[in-house]
Each structure stands twice: as structure tokens, then as C-alpha cells.
Design brief:
heterodimer, A: about 350 residues, alpha/beta, D-Maltodextrin-Binding Protein, domain 2, 11-stranded mixed β-sheet, two-stranded antiparallel ribbon, 12 helices, B: about 250 residues, alpha+beta, 4-stranded antiparallel β-sheet, about 10% strand
């Protein structure tokens, strides 16, 4: 037995020498031809990139999926931006074959998990990049593609608007929106979508409200019991839905009728922290789109023009992976926040 | 006696060959025409079933609508029997072989369209989803055409979807149909030296269609297209079928 062990020792020593050599060979090969490709090269070689989009609609950034002559499609400002990213990636990858975006419609709360698990290259879903608590660890946020946004509120009862406006009047020209909102909404039932920046804002700043956490904006609108006084969400989204989807709801405005923004917010494209080359690619693209006026054109097109989303879905919408979406998308429900 | 028998057999053979060659040249034509008629009926029945379930499909308060491909198939089969006396589950032996081959393909294509649309149909909180007879028909026709040498297309003189723009032949027939009283009869012709069957089955606007296609003309409908200002019974378009014979 001991003789056999004595025989193995020189073998192991020799193997150790060889393994050291292997490391050198590995490094040399990597210098000539990188074995681990960066994320952009991987996208070029796949011919597609995987984009997450929230299945909960955020009109006009993402409209609900509709059926068209071409099949099921989604459309909206975020979808047009994805097309721009696809065009830029096609050029980057040599232009020989188009780089196709593969859209994964996923529940908002799952986007972050999907991204961290490596199932997505990026996601675009009107994600606020500057609100405290909005950036989970390990994710990276691009420069803004939509920077004139913010959190707003919509109401049904005029008394709510009067309460808030009375607070502004009491300030006698010394503007303090936060103080007016805190006092004006005190004791009211306020709804926000779970995990969204409006939820974070309410948790951090509105201690004296009854906070209702909803799975989606439509769930908040549909809830009858308890009766919701105020729904918080992104101002640009509320501006759209109060005009086109839920005319019974009204934007909460300042006393002079100008938009009431509770806090400013900009929207970013999200990818993982390690994707450094993709991050520079996205930032450079967004900067170029901004300086060329293309982003401004997109913003005007979706937020200011009069259009039918279904028709735009038919002509410029993108298909998505049917197998990836929740089997029966349900807008969900609302429940009171706990531990406040 | 022997020569008379040889003559008789020869004449019989000539007569048989002549008769069978006439049969070979005519049977496929009739078969193709009957098949075109059944295919148009089946696509139209699919459109009708989608139309009948439109209120359910557009109900924003309901999540799972239960309008599954199987339910759709069941309703299509029943309606097809009602219209043609043909059971798609047990195709009769006297049905042309071309129809036996193609009707199941169109039924399967139609079911797949309903399956593809399940996510859209079952969204709760969303009313209008644009899953309507026209979009269903476009997709079912395209899926079918991709699987067969036979081409089906919905077409009209002023299409909302440019892919449904009529070709020269279709435009000619549609213009003719527009001036004639409404009729369920298909226009059938053999073209290209009798090698291709063209069949156009007219579709007329029903009362339900007018919510999007009626008056006031030019005002945008729910899907964002200008209304055509149509009246009930006006020609809406046609189901166009092309069956090539040379490759068969």
C-alpha cells in the first residue's frame, strides 16, 4: 500500500507542473482569441437580444398587447426605443443580418429577478432611475431617455383637489409641495403600484395616509372597496390615462392648473452591473438619440399626438414570446400596506 | 369471329381510355372548385364564430374567457355542419380528396390563431383587443397559405391592411361584385391556360360590422382607422382563393 502511495506522489508533482503550464497556455489562447465573449459579441453572434417589458401596461410607454393582422403585438414609446436599440445593434454587429429584439413580457416584480438570473440582456419599462430605493443591487441604469417625468396623482372627487389646493393657498407663495401633499392627503386612502417609484415615494414621505398597495394601475382603478381617494403613479402615465382610458379620473393639478409633480423622476434602460460594454453602448446611443432630436420626436409622438395605439401596434409593434408571459395575465388586486 | 372480337376489344379499349382521360381532366377541376367553396365557407365560419364571441372576448371584467381553441373548434364544427352538412370530424367519403386534405389544415391553422391569441383574449381589465373577424381571418389565411400550395387571402378594394390589397384580377372581380346585388355565390374562373383556379367569395357588411365600418364616414373607429361609411349589405370584400393545378 505504502509503495503504491510512493508511486503516486511523483505523478502528482509532475501533474502540478503541467497544470501550471496549462494556465499559461490558457492565457496565451485568450490573448489571441478571447474564450469568454463580451455581452455585445454574444448578442451579435446570437442575432438577437432579450428585452424584458412589464406585462402591466404603462400607457403610453407600453400599451396592453393587442391582436393584429400580423399576430400579437405590443407598442408604445418603450417599444419604439427598443427598435432603436435593435437598429443600432444591427449596425454595430456589421449590418449583415438584423439583430432582432426578443421581447419577454414579464410581471414588473419579476423583471429584476429575470435580469439577475441572466434571462434578459436589458429591460425597458419606464423604470425610474433616480428615486431612492428604486435601484436594486447588481443592476445598472442608463442615462435618461425620458427626463421630464415625475410622480403625479389622479383623483375622482373634487374635494380631494380642494384639500390639497387649500394647503398650497395657506403657503402664501412659499412653495413646499411635499408639505402641501402631506397635509392635503392626510387620512385619505392612497393607492400605489407595488414596487414602483410611487410606492417608494408614499412609503418614505406620506406617513399619515392609508396606503393601499396594488398589483397594477388597472387594479387600483377597478378597486371599489375600500374606496380609493388618490392614485399615485408616473405623471406622464396618469396624464395619458385620464385623457384616454379612465375619463372619470382627473389629474391633480396646482391651483393655477399646471401639472402637480410630487417629485421628479427620469426613466432609464436597465442592465446588469457587469455588462460594461453594453452599458457604454446604451449610453452612447441614448446620448446620440437625444442630441439628434430623435428622443424628443418619440416623446412628442407618444405623449402629445392624437393616435390609436391599436393601429400603431399593427404597423410598428413588436411580437413577444408568448410562452414567456403569465398564462392568464390578471391585473391583480390591492391590499393595505402593512408595518407602517 | 376472332377478328370481330379483337375489333370489339380494341374499340372498347379506345372508348375506355378516351372516357377516362375526359374524367381525369374534368374531375380535378370540379374537385378544385368544390374545395375552394368549402375552404371559403370554413374561413367565413371561423370569422362568424369570432364575431359571435366578440362581447365575451372584449369583456374587461373577465380574465379567463374560456374561449379556447377547443371551444372555438367545437363551435366551428357545429356551424360548418349547419351550413354544409359536412362533419369536419368525420369527413364524408364522397368529399373531393383535395378538400379532405385541405379542410383539416385550415381548421388547424384557425385553431392555432385562437391559441396564439389566448394571452390577449384573457387579459382582464382590457376591453377592445383587436381580436376581430378580420384580424383572425388574416392570420388564419396566412398560416394556411404557408402550409399549402393553395393561397387564401381576405381582400377588399380599400384595405386597411395593405397586405390585403387586391391584385389586378381580384380588383376586377371586386368592382364587378360591388355593382351587383348581394349574393353568396362565388365567382370562379380558370386562368393562366386553365392551370389556376381563382375563386372569390363575397363578404357583406352585417349590422355588427358597422360599429367600425359604418358612419360617420372618416371618423376614427376604436382601432384608429377611419370609418368607411358603409351600409348594411354593402360589399365588404371577398375571400380570395387560388388553387394551382400544374403542380398537383
Amino acid at each position: 500500500m505504502s509503495d503504491r502511495l510512493l508511486g503516486i506522489v511523483p505523478f502528482l508533482i509532475a501533474l502540478g507542473f503541467f497544470l501550471q503550464g496549462c494556465g499559461l497556455v490558457f492565457d496565451a489562447v485568450e490573448l489571441v482569441h478571447p474564450l469568454v465573449r463580451d455581452e455585445l459579441s454574444a448578442i451579435c453572434s446570437r442575432g438577437q437580444f432579450r428585452v424584458g417589458i412589464s406585462v402591466e401596461p404603462f400607457r403610453p410607454f407600453v400599451f396592453p398587447a393587442v391582436f393584429t393582422d400580423e399576430g400579437v403585438r405590443v407598442t408604445g414609446l418603450d417599444v419604439e426605443l427598443i427598435r432603436e436599440v435593435a437598429d443600432a445593434l444591427t449596425t454595430y454587429c456589421g449590418g449583415q443580418k438584423p439583430i432582432v429584439p426578443t421581447l419577454h413580457l414579464t410581471r414588473f416584480r419579476d423583471l429584476f429577478i429575470e435580469m439577475n438570473e441572466g434571462h434578459l440582456d436589458l429591460f425597458v419599462s419606464s423604470i425610474g432611475g433616480n428615486v431612492p430605493g428604486a435601484r436594486p443591487a447588481g443592476l445598472w441604469y442608463s442615462i435618461p431617455y425620458f427626463h421630464n417625468g415625475g410622480i403625479g396623482a389622479m383623483i375622482q372627487k373634487p374635494e380631494v383637489a380642494e384639500r390639497v389646493r387649500a394647503q398650497f393657498q395657506n403657503q402664501a407663495g412659499k412653495f413646499d409641495t411635499l408639505a402641501a401633499i402631506q397635509a392635503g392627503l392626510s387620512g385619505l386612502t392612497v393607492a400605489a403600484q407595488k414596487g414602483r417609484t410611487s410606492h417608494l415615494y408614499a412609503e418614505a414621505n406620506l406617513k399619515n395616509i392609508r396606503l393601499l398597495i396594488c398589483d397594477s394601475l388597472p387594479a387600483a382603478v377597478e378597486t371599489k372597496d375600500p374606496r380609493i381617494d388618490v392614485i399615485l403613479s408616473k405623471h406622464s402615465i396618469l396624464d395619458y390615462v385620464t385623457k384616454h382610458v379612465w375619463p372619470d379620473w382627473h389629474l391633480l393639478t396646482r391651483n393655477d392648473g399646471t401639472p402637480l409633480i410630487l417629485t421628479q423622476e427620469y426613466f432609464s434602460i436597465v442592465t446588469v452591473e457587469e455588462n460594461r460594454r453594453l452599458q457604454w453602448f446604451l449610453n452612447n446611443l441614448l446620448y446620440r438619440l437625444e442630441e439628434s432630436g430623435r428622443l424628443e420626436h418619440m416623446r412628442r409622438r407618444w405623449l402629445e399626438e392624437d393616435y390609436a395605439p391599436t393601429r400603431r401596434a399593427a404597423t410598428e409593434g413588436l411580437p413577444f414570446e408568448i410562452s414567456k408571459v403569465p398564462e392568464h395575465y390578471d391585473q391583480g388586486q390591492c391590499r393595505f400596506a402593512t408595518g407602517r | 369471329m376472332k377478328s370481330r372480337a379483337v375489333l370489339f376489344i380494341s374499340l372498347s379499349l379506345v372508348f375506355f381510355l378516351a372516357w377516362s382521360s375526359i374524367g381525369w381532366s374534368q374531375a380535378p377541376r370540379e374537385e378544385a372548385e368544390t374545395t375552394a367553396q368549402h375552404l371559403a365557407t370554413l374561413l367565413n365560419v371561423g370569422r362568424l364564430i369570432v364575431d359571435r364571441n366578440q362581447t365575451l372576448i372584449n369583456d374587461p371584467r373577465k380574465g379567463d374567457k374560456g374561449f379556447t381553441p377547443e371551444v372555438f373548434e367545437h363551435e366551428v364544427v357545429d356551424e360548418f355542419i349547419r351550413q354544409t352538412n359536412i362533419d369536419l370530424r368525420h369527413l364524408p367519403s364522397n368529399l373531393p380528396s383535395l378538400a379532405k386534405e385541405l379542410l383539416p389544415v385550415l381548421l388547424q391553422s384557425s385553431k392555432e390563431v385562437v391559441a396564439d391569441a389566448q394571452f390577449v383574449i384573457n387579459q382582464r381589465g382590457i376591453g377592445y383587443k383587436n381580436f376581430i373577424p378580420a384580424t383572425f381571418g388574416s392570420q388564419a389565411a396566412r398560416k394556411f397559405s404557408n402550409r399549402s400550395q393553395v393561397k387564401i387571402k381576405q381582400t377588399t378594394l380599400n384595405p386597411r391592411n395593405l397586405k390585403n390589397t387586391p391584385d389586378a384580377y381580384e380588383e376586377h372581380v371586386l368592382k364587378r361584385l360591388a355593382t351587383q346585388p348581394a349574393s353568396d355565390t362565388s365567382i370562379t374562373e380558370w386562368i393562366d391556360n386553365e392551370t389556376t383556379l381563382r375563386a372569390l367569395t363575397p363578404i357583406y357588411y352585417s349590422h355588427d360590422c358597422l360599429a367600425c365600418h359604418g358612419n360617420p364616414r372618416g371618423i376614427l373607429d376604436i382601432s384608429g382607422y377611419p370609418r368607411e361609411g358603409a351600409q348594411e349589405g354593402d360589399l365588404a370584400g371577398a375571400i380570395s382563393i387560388q388553387i394551382p393545378m400544374k403542380n398537383r
